[in-house]
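Subject: two folds for Thursday's group meeting

Dear M.,

Sorry for the delay on this. The cluster queue was jammed most of the week, so I only got both jobs back this morning. I'm pasting them in the order they finished. Each block is the input sequence followed by the predicted structure tokens. Could you check whether the formatting survives your parser before we put anything on slides? The first protein is the one we discussed after the seminar.
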Amino acid sequence: MERGAPVRIVVDGAPQDAFEGESVAAAIMACGENDLREHESGEPRGYFCGMGICFDCVMTVDGVPNTRTCVTWVRDGLTVERQRGSGLASDPQ
């Protein structure tokens, strides 16, 4: 299996290498990061189902909160931020 073309994404303000054809969650995990967000309870959450069902991998992608990163593909220049709580402005977290 061949990897896609190299791209650069930005995760929490830091540049990170990734490859076309990878999900955002896979690209982040490939760099050794497992915590993708923080639950309202303060517990870390990460990659779980890998098919967009569980919503444990949601992050803010290009300014859009609650994006399921296991089914969102990387592209050059993509910006990703970890969420705390629901990711909504009304969340007191």
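Second protein, same layout:
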Amino acid sequence: ATAPLSDFLIMPALALGALLEPVGLGAPFLWLAARGIDVMLAIGEWVAGLPGAVRTIASAPDVVLPVAFIGVLVCCLWRGPLRWLGLPLACAVLVWPRAPTPDLWIGDSGLQAAFVQGREAGIVRPGVRQFAVDVWTRRRGLEAVDRSMEGWTCSRFSCAPLEPSGPVALWWGRRPPTSEQLAALCESAQVVSVRTVVDDLPLSCAGTLVLDGLDYARGGAVELRREGPATAWRALWVSDVRGDRPWSRYGETEGQ
């Protein structure tokens, strides 16, 4: 829709503006090109807002990109009908099975978390570590949405569901929670994330997965997926897939 606008208005106006600018006559043409660019951006924004215009697809495994690249090369470089043998390989990125969607994501240091509901990821702390949230949700093919304001109790240092067996409870204060505060967090969620190091767990945390600053110092961010019993989780830490490199190691734990 914007190609005629670019070909017949913007590009000629830019060329004339650049040509006539040394003699002081380029301003009207540059103004016309600017208005054309504004119209082109408005059209793009309108199209992007149409239903179904943007679709997020989960990332495929690492092996898929080389396979698809080889398929594209065969289709483009091979001569004759046999080149279409590369088409299935080129489409691998679209049809390759994706890994199961995790149930929960907790960001580096436990400062942010998101829980999966269908094709949406509920953000526990809207606006915090938003870049990390956007990268993770796009990678998993999810739409990031703010959690409901109802059904949660949040303070300056923590946020937890009101109903028992909620998805996750966060403590992001730099000081460790008291035994009573930690017990309340464990009673409200299946997974509890504490930014600092926890030395002792209250009895109410039995059967609850508690991650603390020591875990985040070793592994960074984490994805959690339920497996088997209700209290069984499979964790995928950033350190497991990033590797051990001097520039990717995590620092000291907080609260020690």
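Two things I noticed about the second structure. Residues 127 and 146 are 9 Å apart (CA to CA). The chain has nine helices and eleven strands.

Cheers,
T.
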